[in-house]
């Protein structure tokens, strides 16, 4: 059974319960009118031995896609994280590496991360986010409504 319709109903209910975050006249912007489950395709890594498949997931039609983008914007505004060691893409990495003098006796290493995304529980995520807000002198909002869609 496809849970997309049920999830879409939960998304709509959450948006209605969040007038501070999303004013009534802007709700339509964050509801995907024709949602579908995320699609997946595989890209072959031809540069690696045994040519493993790299899964690529398209989330644009998922019910929560637009709402998650809004949430990430708000999180970035309320609890900005320092990005000293982060890169946006390979071009950003190349640009940053150009500015670093590398002595001839140094060796460069490329690390292929296999478990990049760890599982962080919702409870732990809320605690971390509340701590970041407190550190940034922002009062954490009442989170009782925010637990509707997880």
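^ structure tokens above, recovered residues below v
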């Amino acid at each position: 059974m496809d849970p997309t319709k049920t999830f879409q109903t939960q998304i709509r209910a959450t948006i209605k319960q969040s007038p501070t975050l999303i004013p009534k006249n802007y709700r339509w912007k964050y509801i995907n009118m024709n949602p579908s489950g995320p699609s997946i395709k595989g890209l072959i890594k031809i540069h690696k031995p045994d040519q493993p498949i790299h899964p690529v997931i398209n989330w644009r039609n998922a019910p929560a896609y637009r709402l998650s983008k809004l949430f990430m914007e708000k999180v970035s505004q309320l609890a900005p994280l320092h990005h000293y060691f982060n890169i946006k893409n390979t071009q950003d990495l190349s640009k940053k590496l150009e500015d670093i003098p590398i002595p001839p006796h140094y060796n460069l290493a490329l690390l292929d991360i296999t478990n990049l995304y760890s599982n962080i529980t919702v409870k732990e995520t809320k605690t971390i986010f509340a701590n970041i807000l407190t550190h940034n002198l922002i009062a954490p909002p009442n989170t009782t409504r925010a637990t509707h869609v997880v």
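The first strand starts at residue 39 and ends at 44.
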